[in-house]
Amino acid sequence: MATTTSRHHDRRISPVFLGIVAVMAVSGWAVWTSYASSRGFAVFLFVTSAWVVSLCLHEYAHARTALHGGDITVGAKGYLTLNPLKYTHALLSIVLPVIFVIMGGIGLPGGAVFIERGRIRGRWKHSLVSAAGPLTNVLFAIVCTAPFWLHALDGVPADFRNALAFLALLQVTAALLNFLPVPGLDGYGIIEPWLSHSARRQAEPFAPFGLLAVFALLWVPEINQEFFRLVYAILDGLGVSDLDAATGRSLYQFWPDLPSLSLTPQG
């Protein structure tokens, strides 16, 4: 009986997560109705809280897939409660991604849940555990852009539309970065089970630095330009214009003189 109760507790949605969802809902309502005295601050709260929700869902997807793959320890670790405070690296998983969104509007992936890979059998299961996170970002991007590609924008306030466009941009950048086959990122986790033992051993020392290396490369103007050209091409395919995303970013960054990573292709 105690075990059953413990298992239910391990999977109960955290009040912390529900609080974040509440902030997203209230701020989203404020953006929609123009109730807030500061349009930018309302957009900032809405996009930031929605971004944190997507980060929690990203990590939940990893944990849930791992549970079905054989790692029954994820429940006891609190990963199924959607509580970001339970993550292995809360700084990398929540704080840094939010900071980089504030600095310039890029969806920075982070490492959070510790999966006991030894409990998971089968290469396909290992790949699915890694793929589950970025696929959640893809799904989030599709949901955010649904009014655009469904041509259902009539009646949607401009500020809310632009906020959704910027949030979709964050999800697309997060998905693209996560899918890169770089040690330490989910893309490498997808292909790692299919690599030889020697190749995995050679790549292992680089895992802690993979994300830093990718982010450093994004500061190279030519790479930055090509990366965001791809981002905007995907958004365009989903019906979101460059203007909507850029306007959403401008509303989000309502404070002056903060250094930012350019969101527009650099010519």
Q: Tags for this entry?
A:
single chain, 267 residues, mainly alpha, 11 helices, 0% strand, disordered N terminus, zinc, protease
In short:
By secondary structure, the protein is mainly α. It is 64% helix and 0% strand.
Q: Tell me the series of helices and strands, N- to C-terminal.
A: HHHHHHHHHHH
pLDDT < 50 runs, ≥5 residues: 1-6, 263-267
Ends distance: 65 Å
Share of β-strand residues:
under 5%
Average pLDDT works out at 87
Please state the CA-atom Rg, rounded to the nearest Å.
Answer: 19 Å
Oligomer: single chain
- Total strands: the figure is 0
Anisotropy-based shape = globular
The main pleated sheet reads as:
none
Q: With helices defined by DSSP (H or I, 4 residues minimum), what is the helix count?
A: 11
| Category by helix and strand content | mainly alpha
Q: Estimate the helix proportion, in percent.
A: 55-70%
Write up this protein:
- The chain has 267 residues and is mainly alpha-helical.
- The chain has eleven helices and no strands.
- α3 (39-69) packs antiparallel against α4 (90-104) and α5 runs antiparallel to α6.
- The radius of gyration is 19 Å and the shape is globular.
